[in-house]
Design goal:
With 334 residues, this protein is α/β, with parallel strands linked by helices. Helices cover 32% and strands 24% of the residues. It has a single domain, classed as Thiolase/Chalcone synthase (Peroxisomal Thiolase, Chain A, domain 1, 3-Layer(aba) Sandwich), CATH 3.40.47.10. The chain is built from ten helices and 13 strands. It is globular and about 60 Å long.
């Protein structure tokens, strides 16, 4: 079977920074509470004229340049998002137009903050099966548009951004194993009530207070702590690896306490764990892609390194990918 690997990575973050001090002026909170409970110091907020497709396209262009692949070589675009610009067309189609990737199929995928992992797993199977040769995976979310800025229990947690990667065939290494799961009975733990077609026009398209994030924070926390460890161990088992093989662990950046608990369960010391939650908060489907792109730029990922990426999110969903980082030599251009 053909192997799939990551050829290039990219990210896009809005310029506007919202600090904990800014939030202290908006709701009854404190930098001390936010820092100790979550590890977050600041997050990025999209400008009012930024769209999810804009951020996704910017991250995608960076990933294409990093991979040395042109837009017309891409034959599949998968955008993971819970904040698409419109019900339809899919955000991936808007991205396709912005990139000029006219030879590509395009679809969106909704798996909450696990979306990047789900999309990467789909991309790998598209390459492995021979369906596709160059797949663009993008996680993007503008959660600031669905955040209730008067609710201190949620508004301190989230931020906006996009992360992307180009997936292509590799001669060795690459994506070693994937694992995805879901528990729809936990759907009521983290949700936005207004679905595009859920309410009839007579009820109004955006009934008051129905277009914001609702979250049972403590229950999501307990689920996250359990599932991040479980999913990582399961993907390691599938890859025939153990946690000592992990050069870098790149978890979904939701809360430093959740990251620390997962790292502890795997017995990983801090140099093997990538953290940027203090700068961006929880950017949902974008988080793991942004983290991977930063880790590469910081020289923390080298050919031959084994990585585990793991996420959890609304659904409830979870997923993990074990991979061996490949260099230019391992790209299969045939
Ligand atoms: N500032 C100050 N106080 C706050 C606050 C804020 N921003 N948010 C909540 N509080 C208060 C609560 O009202 C509560 O007060 P009370 O005891 O008087 O009722 C107290 O702080 C403790 O709240 P609690 O919810 O028990 O805190 P916690 O330790 O569970 O931390 C979260 C809250 C949200 C940080 C934590 O539960 C979490 O990270 N959950 C997972 C969320 C997540 O990752 N969601 C995205 C999934 S992809």
């Amino acid at each position: 079977m053909r192997k799939a690997g990551i050829w290039g990575v990219g990210r896009a973050l809005p310029e506007r920074v919202l600090t904990n001090a800014d939030l202290e002026r908006m709701v009854d909170t404190s930098d001390e509470w936010i820092t100790t409970r979550t590890g977050i110091k600041e997050r990025r907020i999209a400008a009012s004229n930024d769209t999810a497709a804009d951020l996704a396209s910017e991250a995608a262009k960076a990933a294409l340049a990093d991979a040395d692949v042109t837009a017309d070589e891409i034959d599949m675009i998968i955008v993971a998002t819970v904040t698409p610009d419109m019900p339809f067309p899919a955000t991936s189609c808007l991205v396709q137009a912005q990139l000029g990737a006219q030879n590509s199929a395009a679809f969106d995928l909704s798996a909450g903050c696990s979306g990047f992992i789900y999309a990467l797993a789909m991309a790998a199977s598209c390459i492995e099966s021979g369906l596709s040769r160059r797949v663009l995976v993008i996680g993007v979310d503008i959660l600031s548009r669905i955040t209730d800025w008067s609710d201190r229990t949620t508004c301190v947690l989230f931020g906006d951004g996009a992360g992307a990667c180009v997936v292509g065939p590799v001669s060795r290494g690459g994506i070693l194993a994937t694992y995805m799961g879901a528990d729809g009975t936990g759907g009521d733990k983290l949700y936005v009530p207004t679905a595009y077609f859920r309410y009839s026009p007579s009820e109004g398209t955006r009934p008051a207070k129905k277009h914001h994030i609702y979250m049972a924070g403590n229950e999501v926390f307990k689920f996250a702590v359990r599932i991040m460890g479980d999913a990582s161990l399961e993907v390691l088992r599938r890859a025939g690896l153990s946690s000592e093989d992990i050069a870098l662990f790149i978890p979904h950046q939701a809360n430093i306490r959740i990251i620390d608990a997962a790292a502890k369960r795997l017995g990983l010391s801090s140099e093997h764990v990538f953290v940027n939650v203090h700068k961006y908060g929880n950017t949902s489907a974008a988080s793991i892609g942004i983290a991977l792109s930063e880790a590469v730029d910081q020289g923390r990922v080298n050919p031959g390194d084994r990585l585990v990426l793991v996420g959890f999110g609304a659904g409830l969903t979870w997923g993990a990918v074990a991979l061996e980082w490949t260099g230019i030599k391992e790209r299969d251009l045939a």
